[in-house]
Design goal:
The structure is a homodimer.
Chain A: E1 2-6, E2 13-18, H1 25-31, E3 36-42, H2 46-57, E4 61-67, H3 76-88, E5 96-101, H4 103-115, E6 121-126, H5 129-135, E7 140-145, E8 148-155, E9 160-164, H6 173-190, H7 192-206, H8 210-230, H9 245-254, H10 262-279, H11 285-297, H12 309-316, E10 322-323, E11 326-327, E12 329-334, E13 337-341, H13 346-356
Parallel strand pairs in A: 2-9, 3-4, 3-5, 5-6, 6-9
Antiparallel strand pairs in A: 1-2, 7-8, 10-11, 12-13
């Protein structure tokens, strides 16, 4: 087992990464203080891993709630259901909410934990690559609104993240690929060497090589933990983590969160961010090609025909990155070097959207 | 105008108290940075003060949303309506939500501000005595759940509190009395001298004497600001502010938030907390009598016949003050001296409930 730490003073917490952690009762004894637990999972993950987790949480009182699977179910109404279960079972302010599943389960369970009794303990047990490398770390919780992605939510750091890499063995190939989008993102924003390593090892990752996956999970969590430490509330550098997300969110939102997995939309979004960087003269043609090629090799979309450029633009305007009415974009000066700007020409944006959408 | 400050480092903010502040455009220019504003008010307050506030907020873009009046409408569904308005009007992360009204409006607008885009600026413009002396200060936001009072919410400090004392001139007498419950609470928990002053001046307050009201608003905000500074998240002393609230919330919750105003339930709750303190041998008989008498003179209930003792107990068990299954109570060692304990006999609690309920 490997232990990283998100250093946030009194809100700091460990990220535990390793094979078979779900079955280690001592680990949960050590990291979860609460006597009363609500485990939130979904209809796909619960049949696979809920029993093992419940066993590891004994002898506490464990209540469970199972949500439908998928981004289109990440709604305030489903968080309200989780809150109803907390109230109906009389769970007190000293309880903990445990998320067992991917990013959707983690975001909703985390938002319920953030708002139940104005905040109770929260534990992330991510079971998808995307959740293990990205969404389980950093305290962003929330739900989608029909008008836009993640528009409702809260910052609420977990007390621990337990990433059992063995759960990836049952992960559908499509979900694995979706997770790779966020992994590629880390290389792009701040680690050119890691990006090169990914170029050399993408095939191993795609067939689920355990050692290669363990390496990318560790490196991704290291990068994310460091960025979150520096800027918990996204006043500055944390915005780099949104590379490709303004484009990706618009794709998800314009397709009703049903056509593309989050990671797939981010794959296309990364290519669009690179294209936009090229259009603005920040990124070389060769680097754009490297980004496009790696995203494509990871089995992720680089073009989304079902979304029209003007529809995407409409959805981008309500994105959280909008400031003073202007869409702020994370762009690249090179592989491993991201920056934020609202200083770009509309034609460059139009060309970018026209190239990859519709 | 008087200015107090809640000292919370980067989250600190001013409380501005004075006559006619609603009409002072320079004041809002100084304290509200956002260009885009959502004003949340209710059907009773909006006809009286919304126009004046809108004028003072010019030349910004101001969107408004008007909620139904009353504690029974303090629901997640109504917060969702506010969030819908924010999204529909494409308000960005740099917007501000302004609450114009009493505690119910402030709690809901604040929760919407806390969760929209994971937190936007929030300004309190309280128009009831209760909101001016208590709920607008300290960052507690949230809504009720059918299972219990304020069970869903967040800590989200405002960027400014603007208390225009002139708005109290239109406040119904019943609402004024309700606000006095929280004022009496401050005397009880930490200021015996203030309590004595209230005993001497309660009649002036009840007829709405502006000078007497200004004094209690100032002193109440001073006490609250100091307690919040010491313990923002209620890990310790802030719990004293809940004196009477475990009883009061049970009354509100058991009557569906429809029969009693929050302050009225707190009036009865203060008497019950004093009675419980007496039953446990902490408080003298004379002090219990002083509390009961002042609450009664303020026109607040000291007995609630519509709630049965066992029903109240059921509702108390889901209160946020429950820890390890035990109801923690704020009790009194004397007037001006509160403490928190879970160490009391059940019979004392039973007798307290039986004396004041049913």
């Amino acid at each position: 087992m490997e232990t990283l730490r998100v250093e946030l003073g009194s809100r700091g917490y460990p990220i535990l990464i390793g094979e078979g952690l779900l079955g280690q009762r001592t680990l949960f004894e050590q990291h979860v203080r609460a006597r009363d637990i609500l485990v939130v999972s979904n209809t796909v993950v619960a049949p696979l891993y809920l029993e093992a987790l419940q066993t590891s949480l004994q002898p506490r009182r464990v209540v469970t709630t199972i949500l439908p699977d998928g981004e289109s179910h990440k709604t305030l109404a489903n968080v309200a259901r989780v809150l109803d279960v907390l109230v109906a079972n009389r769970l007190g302010r000293d309880c903990a909410v445990v998320a067992l599943g991917g990013g959707v389960v983690g975001d909703m369970a985390g938002f319920a934990a953030a708002t139940y009794q104005r905040g109770v303990d929260f534990v992330q047990v991510p079971t998808t690559l995307l959740a293990q490398v990205d969404s389980s770390v950093g305290g962003k919780t929330g739900v989608n609104h029909p008008g836009g992605k993640n528009l409702i939510g809260a910052f609420h750091q977990p007390v621990a993240v337990v990433a059992d890499t063995r759960t990836l063995a049952t992960l559908p190939a499509r979900e694995l690929r979706a997770g790779l989008a966020e992994v590629i993102k880390y290389g792009l924003i701040c680690d050119a060497e890691f990006f090169s390593w990914l170029e050399a090892h993408i095939e191993e990752l795609l067939v689920g090589d355990a050692e290669a996956l363990a390496r990318v999970i560790r490196r991704s969590c290291e990068i994310k933990a460091e960025i979150v430490r520096r800027d918990e509330r996204e006043h500055a550098d944390r915005a780099f983590l949104n590379l490709g997300h303004t484009f990706g969110h618009a794709i998800e939102s314009a397709t009703g969160y049903r056509e593309w997995l989050h990671g797939e939309a981010i794959g296309a979004g990364l290519v669009m961010a690179a294209r936009m960087s090229r259009e603005c003269g920040y990124l070389g043609a060769e680097d754009l090609q490297r980004v496009t090629r790696l995203v494509a090799r990871a089995g992720l979309p680089t073009h989304v025909s079902s979304v029209k450029p003007h529809t995407a633009l409409e959805h981008m305007r309500i994105d959280k990155k909008v400031q003073a009415g202007r869409i702020r974009l994370v762009l690249l000066r090179g592989i491993g070097s991201a920056f934020v700007t609202a200083d770009y020409g509309e034609p460059a944006l139009q060309r970018t959207l026209a190239t990859h959408l519709g």
